[in-house]
Amino acid sequence: MSNRAVLEVIALDEEDAVAAQTGGADRLELVTDMAADGLTPSRTGFAAIRAAVDIPLRVMLRLTDGFAAGDVDALVGRALDLREAGADEFVLGFLTPDGEPDLVAVERLLAVLDGARWTFHRAIDRAADRDGLRKRLADLPGLDTYLTAGAATGVDDGLATLKAEAARTGEPGYEARILVGGGLRLDHLPELRAAGLDAFHIGGAARPRGWAAPVSADAVRTWREALDA
Fold first, then answer.
1. Angle between helices 72-84 and 103-113 (to 10 degrees)
2. Model pTM greater than 0.90?
3. DSSP-assigned letter for residue 204
4. What is the pLDDT of residues 16-32, one digit of tens each?
5. Secondary structure (H, E, C), 17-71
């Protein structure tokens, strides 16, 4: 079924990954340290998850909390290490202190990602100019997704922006798929689906017992069924 919506779930380890795949996730975002909003996993952590599941994995490239790139040399080293271990999809996104896309950091990473597909993550929700950011990133190799809530504060406040951007799909800067995430709830889905949005990202929603507990396959299945309904 070609119009099946994409469901991406955050996974911290192989237990999460197996539960998410069992529940019907199409893809995983791999991170560590959710206290810092998701940082780059280790090579061994990636390899364990890659061995445990057979769905696509997008690996976070981020070494510190916030949206500054930080130590770009270290990031490049981690990216090379993960590429060597077999990682072939990534998540990244950096802003300068004035809220512009940090193209220097992004392009340095893309040089070693070697054409791999990647998501520009929720840094877009903190950008000084969303439309300007999209247009400046439009021609970067491999960029196929924006993870966004439409607003820094989450989907509740971002619905109008998400719907407006979905309506521009295919325009310059709007070719990449919108992956909705950040305070996303099941009750948002009908309105988002009606607007043509077809990719959704969950973290806490897949963990009814909180981040200290693993992903629940049943919770993921609830989302899968809602999207397939």
1. 20
2. yes
3. G
4. 999 999 999 999 999 99
5. HHHHHHHCCCEEEECECHHHCCECCCHHHHHHHHHHCCCCEEEECCCCCCCCCCC
